[in-house]
Design a protein that fits this description.
Layout: H1 2-18, E1 34-40, E2 48-53, E3 64-65, E4 70-75, E5 80-82, E6 84-87, E7 90-92, E8 105-111, E9 121-124, E10 127-128, E11 135-146, E12 155-165, E13 173-185, E14 194-200, E15 205-208, E16 216-225, E17 235-244, H2 247-261, E18 278-280, E19 288-294, E20 297-304, E21 319-324, E22 337-342, E23 349-353, H3 356-359
Parallel strand pairs: 1-19
Antiparallel strand pairs: 1-2, 2-3, 2-7, 4-5, 4-8, 6-7, 8-9, 8-10, 9-18, 11-12, 12-16, 13-14, 13-15, 13-17, 17-20, 21-23, 22-23
């Protein structure tokens, strides 16, 4: 009787399973689309334009560089500047030949030489470089994450704010990008114990004053640093770049910001639905991803060196063994590293780790001090 029930149950399960088929939604993101990434400013520096082909959602490969293109930037005064391909799909300007100027309108032109693009040409809309004011101030405030209790000390974080304004009332749309650099130290007497780590911002920071009577931004919450990182352990610095935007580009970044903040699902908007300012000349209906950004730029840097309570200890699990004596240590420098060497005063012993990053800070960062670093 049990055997008959088991056979019937198995047949029902197979019948239900046989009714399930894979659903693959038809979206623009299952196509290979041209992707354009790049911007120019009014600063004396090298600008890069990156060209690639997007990969379908079902593909695990990253975007494919679009090489062999002719890339030029032209302005409304009939000047034209050709970019040089430095690496596959990356095209750069020569700072001795080109620098953006406030008030001019710039257009990006791309002529492809690839069967995947039908040798099409692509062009951006003309974009005016609007002036941008200086950043008035960057400052921070301590934030209590958790009060001290019987389970541990008080935990604190750091909120970084920005103030800016345009007395001329011209720059009504702003975007900020920042670069963090912080010093960190290993709690052991090893050769490479002090290093610096640099990270670029990965969030979209934008703000509009178009509906305000005054072109002024106060206490914009630029970045929050929690106690779960060692950024605030020794010394921290942030360089903030402020960019001027036109209204169209602000709307573009706003849509991308909404995407990044949404919980992704089948019915949410996707990056392919966000229109940029690039179009195909031969086929205007072809969808092109990305944006050619033209912005003036101003910058400001601050340093933070203060005691923050409850900062995480990233090295509390470093010590894995203690070896007494002066004999050879098997597998040393292949899977074991010395954290502390107590071989002068008895008892002689050495403290070991199996994590290289605990014995060498260059695993995470660099031991070369940045040129802008302030020691005091």
């Amino acid at each position: 009787m049990r055997s008959i029930k088991y056979i019937i149950f198995s047949l029902i399960f197979l019948l239900i399973a046989g009714c399930i088929s894979q659903f693959i939604p038809e979206t623009d993101e299952n196509q290979e689309l041209v992707v354009v990434e790049g911007f120019i400013t009014d600063q004396y520096e090298i600008y890069t334009i990156k060209l690639s082909m997007s990969r379908p959602l079902s593909s695990k490969n990253i975007a494919k560089p679009l090489s062999g293109c002719i890339v030029t930037i032209s302005d409304n005064l009939h000047n034209s500047y050709m970019l040089t391909e430095t690496t596959s799909g990356t095209y750069a300007t020569d700072p001795t030949q080109f620098q953006g100027m406030v008030g001019r309108k710039y257009t990006l032109n791309v002529k492809t030489n690839s069967p995947s693009t039908n040798n099409y040409s692509y062009e951006s809309l003309p974009v005016e470089m609007k002036p941008v004011p200086q950043i008035d101030s960057i400052f921070y405030e301590k934030i209590t994450i958790k009060e001290k209790d019987e389970f541990g000390p008080k935990k604190e974080g750091c909120q970084i704010y920005l103030n800016t304004h345009d007395p001329a009332g011209i720059c009504r749309y702003y975007r900020w990008v920042f670069t963090e650099t912080w010093e960190f130290r290993l709690p052991f007497n090893v050769t490479n114990s002090v290093c610096w780590l640099t990270r670029n911002s990965s969030v979209i920071n934008i703000k509009s004053t178009s509906v305000l009577a005054e072109d002024r931004i106060n206490r914009y919450p630029l970045n929050f640093i929690s106690n779960k990182t060692d950024r605030l352990k020794v010394r921290y610095s942030v360089l903030v770049n402020q960019y001027s935007l036109n209204e169209d580009e602000y709307i573009y970044w706003e849509k991308l910001q909404n995407i990044s903040e949404e919980v992704g699902s089948l019915y949410d908007i996707t990056p392919a639905t966000v229109s940029g300012n690039i179009q195909c000349i031969e086929d205007p209906g072809e969808k092109v991803l990305g944006y050619f950004s033209v912005s003036a730029k101003s910058s400001r840097r601050i340093f933070i060196k203060e005691n923050f309570s409850g900062i995480v200890n990233l090295y509390k699990e470093c010590i894995t063994d203690t070896v007494f004596g002066t004999g050879p240590i098997p597998h040393l420098n292949t899977s074991v590293w010395i954290l502390e060497d107590h071989t002068i005063v008895p008892p002689i012993f050495r403290v070991l780790t199996q994590t290289k990053g605990c014995a060498d800070c260059t695993v995470r960062g660099t031991n070369i001090e940045p040129d802008f670093w302030e020691d005091n």
